[in-house]
Design brief:
With 362 residues, the protein is mainly alpha-helical. It is 51% helix and 3% strand. The radius of gyration is 33 Å and the shape is elongated. The N terminus is likely disordered.
Length: 362
């Protein structure tokens, strides 16, 4: 056989091999594409069986440990945002540090955001996006329990308020508040390590609309007192009140309306400085709200604060009244005077710490 014939023969063999390899590769690809359907068809219909990870649209069953448990918690936490279908207890399970997957995911999001603001790498920006997606997927999980606390007693809302990126923070807060409203076990009166409720923290971060929604919960106790100062939530809010934020005034009004309809509410209870809610409201010029409290049958108009100021003394030297902040000054002062004088326990001869009586102040 000459050289030309040999070369032709070799070429034929190589071409045949290439055709066979291509056909085999094509069959392999078809099998690989069909396999996810078979796996997906065998996917468990409940949450009691094996965990799945979705990777590029393909479900991958995860192996169990020798003791029959799921993957180690550290691994399942790291994969929390990968679309993982996890058991009910896994989505809310605490690690050895007392953190659930969402607490870890929130901390990771803030850490990734810090990296991005420091280095401005594109990879860091992608990390932020992925970390944010992880957080949202956990919250959206139907088995997610919004009532969980970390080892310091902080709620998810408290932790989410540490997120510095406002648009991410807002979406997370809105989702968490919605979950709180739908939860039958969420307690709006629960406090963190600083003796603050979710409502108080939301107000501090100017989430007034979300705070107002939690205030409307039937389980919210407006009469509860907080901290060593024995402050009411109303006093905590009013003490930070500024006149140019209308939303703050709406929150104060919501709390007052809640109080006057609460059988447990005592309008005469004071904080450590001897201030009642009405006194605090008067000092900040919230006269309409103060009047609602003063109209309660149990209201004692003869009360005085720690400096022996009466309600008359408080309104008579109120800077808001003096500056005429949109109120009929004389009419309101007259209302307070009449209210105080109608109380048989009131003594007009008592002077304050500066030795002024109410008559002298007026």
């Amino acid at each position: 056989m000459n050289k030309i014939a040999k070369i032709a023969g070799i070429g034929t063999v190589l071409a045949s091999s290439a055709l066979v390899s291509a056909a085999h590769l094509n069959n392999t690809k078809q099998s690989a594409q069909a396999e996810p359907k078979e796996i997906a068809a065998s996917k468990p219909q409940d949450d009691t069986r094996i965990t799945y990870i979705w990777n590029n649209g393909n479900p991958i069953p995860q192996k169990r440990e020798s003791n029959g448990s799921e993957l180690p918690f550290a691994i399942t936490t790291a994969m929390a945002g990968a679309g993982m279908l996890r058991k009910r207890e896994d989505i809310n399970k605490c690690d050895k540090n007392g953190n659930t997957p969402l607490f870890n995911a929130l901390k990771t999001l803030q850490r990734k955001y810090n990296d991005y603001t420091e280095y401005f790498f594109k990879s860091c920006k992608l990390d932020v996006q992925n970390a944010f997606k992880d957080v949202i997927e956990i919250i959206d999980n139907p088995y997610f329990d919004v009532t969980k606390k970390d080892s310091n007693g902080n709620s998810y809302i408290s932790e989410a308020l540490n997120i510095s990126r406002k648009e991410h923070q807002s979406e997370i807060i809105n989702k968490l508040v919605k979950k709180c409203l739908l939860s039958s076990t969420y307690d709006p009166n629960s406090v963190n390590q600083f003796d603050e409720t979710d409502i108080k923290e939301l107000i501090d971060y100017e989430y007034y609309e979300q705070a107002a929604k939690l205030i409307q919960l039937n389980t919210f106790d407006s009469a509860k007192r907080y901290g060593s100062g024995n402050d009411s939530l109303l006093q905590q809010v009013v003490d930070e009140y500024t006149f140019d934020i209308n939303e703050e005034k709406l929150i104060c009004t919501s709390l007052v309306n809640k109080n006057i309809n609460n059988d447990k509410y005592n309008p005469n209870e004071t904080d450590e400085s001897g201030n009642t809610d009405a006194m605090t409201l008067l000092r900040y010029g919230l006269f309409d709200d103060a009047k609602k409290v003063m109209e309660l049958e149990t209201f004692d108009a003869s009360k005085r604060d720690q400096y022996r100021n009466s309600y008359i003394g408080i309104v008579s030297k109120n800077d808001v009244i003096k500056k005429n902040k949109g109120i009929n000054n004389k009419e309101f002062v007259s209302y307070v005077v009449d209210k105080v004088l109608s109380n048989p326990n009131y003594d007009p001869n008592i002077s304050d710490d500066d030795e002024y009586t109410d008559i002298e102040k007026l």
